[in-house]
Specification:
The structure is a single chain. This protein is of the alpha+beta class and 78 residues long. It has helices spanning 13-26, 45-53; strands at 2-9, 29-33, 36-41, 61-66, 72-75. Strand 2 (29-33) and strand 3 (36-41) form a beta hairpin. The N and C termini lie far apart (29 Å).
Length: 78
């Protein structure tokens, strides 16, 4: 399990809703405030980031990073 921080800077409420739902399904993430989550993931960081990125709009910025390592994935607008 990897401890992750996920942040989403989004224009669309729909993007926030989709990402929130996806993380809720995993059951391992808590929303600290809208657009910012902390939690754990058993899958690869890039795999989760790609899955979340497929849900967001072209103007949104998504950041997924590991709390323990220097590993991070940041996606800028599509």
């Amino acid at each position: 399990m990897t401890d992750l921080i996920i942040s989403l800077h989004c224009v669309s409420p729909d993007s926030l809703s989709k990402v929130r739902q996806e993380l809720l399904v995993s059951g391992c993430f808590a929303e600290v405030y809208p657009g910012f989550w902390m939690g754990r993931c058993s899958c690869k960081l890039k795999h989760l980031a790609n899955r979340l990125f497929s849900l967001v709009g072209w103007q949104d910025v998504l950041l997924v990073q590991s709390r323990e390592k220097e590993e991070q994935v940041i996606f800028f607008p599509k």
